[in-house]
Design a protein that fits this description.
By secondary structure, the chain is of the alpha/beta class. The chain has two domains: about 120 residues, Response regulator (Rossmann fold, 3-Layer(aba) Sandwich), CATH 3.40.50; about 90 residues, Arc Repressor Mutant, subunit A (Orthogonal Bundle). It contains eight helices and twelve strands. It has a five-stranded parallel sheet, sandwiched between helices. It binds calcium ion (CA).
Length: about 220
């Protein structure tokens, strides 16, 4: 899953990006509204974290213009717990909001929830054959037994499972799993697929030659 953070407070931006990467997300950053709007319309992000108070273009304008072309889930960060801000955000097409200062675990939980909703996933656990993927706890079981995955392997599996039955192209996987700054060594998609097959069985992920991969 690839997230765009639009936030002008450098310390917050840096710490949020680091924390999300530790969870296995690919993270791009924008430090003002114009850069944020540009990136958010160029790339198919899985979710956007959008601060309200931003230089050049505020969060409301970014959201309004983004909604002209994309339905990307948006979590807004508001500085005040003002009722009109919440109503305005939700009216403007935000999927959820958080009031600063917020708890990191709560941000993670809300992001997972808006990503699940956007994928039309109404339950936390996705089951494919003997594999159960708990998208709230981010844990995976094979025939009832826990399987240890790296954060990146988990994200790849979750992305394919949220699109199960569809062939997901390599281009889409690269776009959703790796961020703008990653070098090619960390992008070894085939290695991650091969590791998942070793851990979860070779029948789980099908290769659609020339097209991409498919689960279920
Ligand atoms: Ca700000």
């Amino acid at each position: 899953m690839r997230i765009l953070l639009i936030e002008d407070e450098v310390d917050l931006l840096t710490s949020l990006a680091r924390a999300l990467r530790e969870e296995g997300y690919a993270v791009d950053a924008a430090a003002d509204g114009e850069e944020g709007l540009y990136k958010s319309t160029e790339v198919a992000y899985d979710a956007i974290v959008l601060d309200v108070m931003l230089p050049l273009l505020d969060g409301w304008k970014v959201l309004e213009r983004l909604r002209e072309s994309r339905r990307t889930p948006v979590l807004m960060l508001t500085a005040r717990d003002a009722a009109q801000d919440r109503v305005r955000g939700l009216d403007a097409g935000a999927d959820d909001y958080l009031v600063k200062p917020f708890d990191l675990e709560e941000l993670f939980a809300r992001l997972r929830a808006i990503i699940r909703r956007a994928a039309g996933q109404t339950v936390n656990v996705i089951e494919v054959g003997g594999v159960a993927i708990d998208t709230a706890a981010r844990r995976v079981k094979l025939d009832g037994h826990s399987v240890e995955l790296t954060a990146r392997e988990y994200c790849l599996l979750e992305f394919l499972a949220m699109h199960r039955g569809e062939t997901v192209t390599r281009t889409a996987l690269y776009e959703h799993l790796f961020d703008e700054d990653e070098d090619s060594l960390s992008n070894l998609l085939d290695v991650h697929v091969s590791n998942l097959r070793k851990k979860l069985g070779h029948g789980l992920i099908e290769t659609r030659r020339g097209h991409g991969y498919c689960i279920g």
